[in-house]
């Protein structure tokens, strides 16, 4: 049966010129004695006049009859041209192509090459997203409008559909037959047709099954004779990989370099697309949105090229405005989903009459969510009414008044309904993509940056000088005054162990980038050998691990807006330190696979215990001026790390902790332990303690060598075992109690008492 089907398919595609098997062609194959697969006696029984039978069966096949009346020899039909190409000129004449601006130079180059007598085949090369295909569409638009030399006025541009050409061409000879017929039809048009091949590198090897010739080799003779004009498009990488290796093919094309447009040209391109975008989304786009789109896409969307990323960003902003005007905001939908979840759990617990405390907590949570939902809906209705007034008003002064009121509502309740596409809407889209606070929340974020010092001092105690230096740099970044090609900051935190160097990175990730998980930690003790540089940026080609990415570059490429913590940098090999020079200088580096990774939106924190004894001695000698301490340390650090490394970093000394600071840290850690204990008990126990406990723990800490880390050691050996024993040994763990921690005879003791709960 398989052999019969194979012979039937070959018969249908080569002789009948159809792309499927029907009953007539199946019968034709069965009675064909030359292709018969039956025994001799069966073949004799089926013997008949083959020509008459073939004509009769063809008449039974509608598509075969249609195909027979439109053979490739009938050049007026152009069956293959319509089947395997798309007429760009026809789309241009019917207004189905987007306008193309800013590429006049490249279009003129295409025209110059196409007018040659020989080697008149341009190939557009450039990075993905720079608009190579759009340039060909721009040429089609110029031809449609008659703004070309007379020789090109009647020319039609056909875009090759390589997928359609290859589809179903698994049978030997089918692909060559299709391509040859297509080239024949193009030649029959006497130079009035130009073939456009996008992703031209796919030609190399196309159809190249064992024993077959690929598409590129079939095109070479026609290109050499000048019978066929082709416009190709491919990326630089694919051109080098495929075309440069085939010199006979490359010499038949003339390269047209397509560079990424600058910001002014990109803005001009976006303006030409405004009418079509506004019509598609039924929204209005303000001029400030164009400027913001180009600026923010250049600043924050790395790894993509203009104008592709700007068009994508503006299109997304338009869709967000359209969605906001027709559906409820995400915030309301999230609260409603949480309400349904909590109400379902409460109903189940009520039915089971179990866990009364959990029921009480759920009831309180539901009441809070209902109140929050009502506030959100009120704000949504208010913003919707303002947008409706702006859209319906014809008076300019009234529109401006309503817009100011809408901006005030945005700052108060966050944006829910957008009146048009403006800079804030575009910035909010970028913020959603990248996690960097922009747009409407930018003003509040700048206020948060101005209060960052206070927030850092609450988390890292006793290091006001260090926190002030870091907060000042963050404020510079938030004001957009930093060098755009460098990271947000490069700091080397040096000091004794347990003074808060590593802890500094966590609140920075939370306050600057909105999430404590935006922290990339690299332990530099693992990079004491020179060859470990490849671990950071990826293994080179030919080595184990190539293609898997580096531990640093891969994580930064996925989280470009984060704090990078290089812990114990003094233990890294000098070659590893030199790896960071380019990152500190230009904020960008190439990984092992040739991909550029940007560090320009990262805050780099390095910690070091180097010269900690010197810092302690200077501090004990009474020197409290941090700038003076820094001056005294710089010669030591220049000798160890090198002046080239230190010249690229900001050295910040961390000094030993005062006893008062130590006591404050103990208080913070005790509060965290109490929260964990209450959570572990299901909120059944509430812990109380007095100052004597804090003083006792502080007294037992030996902070000269390990700093605040010794606090954890004391807590783990004294307080936590007592709490854990009480939690696991308590028989009556369903009665709410107060637990008081105190110190008696130099030991930690607990005393419990019941307290009433609401019914």
From TrEMBL:
Read off the NCBIfam families from this record: VI_ClpV1
Pfam family example for this protein? AAA
- The answer to whether keyword Protease applies is yes
Q: Name one GO biological process term.
A: proteolysis
Where is each Clp ATPase C-terminal domain found?
657-750
Cellular component GO terms, alphabetical: cytoplasm
The parts of the chain that form a coiled coil are 332-386
Record bears the keyword Chaperone: yes
Q: Which UniProt keywords apply?
A: ATP-binding, Chaperone, Coiled coil, Hydrolase, Nucleotide-binding, Protease
Q: Which segments constitute the AAA+ ATPase domain?
A: 118-264, 487-636
Q: Which gene name does the record give?
A: detQ
What GO molecular function terms would the record report?
ATP binding; ATP hydrolysis activity; peptidase activity
Q: Protein name, please? A: Putative ATP-dependent Clp protease
In terms of PANTHER family, this protein maps to: ATP-DEPENDENT CLP PROTEASE, ATPASE WITH CHAPERONE ACTIVITY
